[in-house]
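Handout, page 2. Input:
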Amino acid sequence: MAVAIIRTGGKQFAVEKGAKIQVPSLKHAVGTSIDLEVLSTADNKSLKIGAPAIADAKVRATVVDHGRASKIIVFKKKRRKHYKRSKGHRQGYTTLKIESIG
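Output:
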């Protein structure tokens, strides 16, 4: 089973063929195939590590859907000062299905 480390949205993800992952929002339509930047690949026989990326390696993924994560509450308080602030945030994400590693 081939495994690859990819980078998208400033984060790194370990992926296998057929896996579904949630990455920070991408501006691609649902059903679009995209190629992702590959940092390293490994299978049963070999390991390739890029510096920083492997030029000839590709991970092809298909956009499954877009969504927003659950809400997080950012709460600030200074005791005895009558200072309280509450703010919510929902991070957007894109779900990708890994089609091939090669």
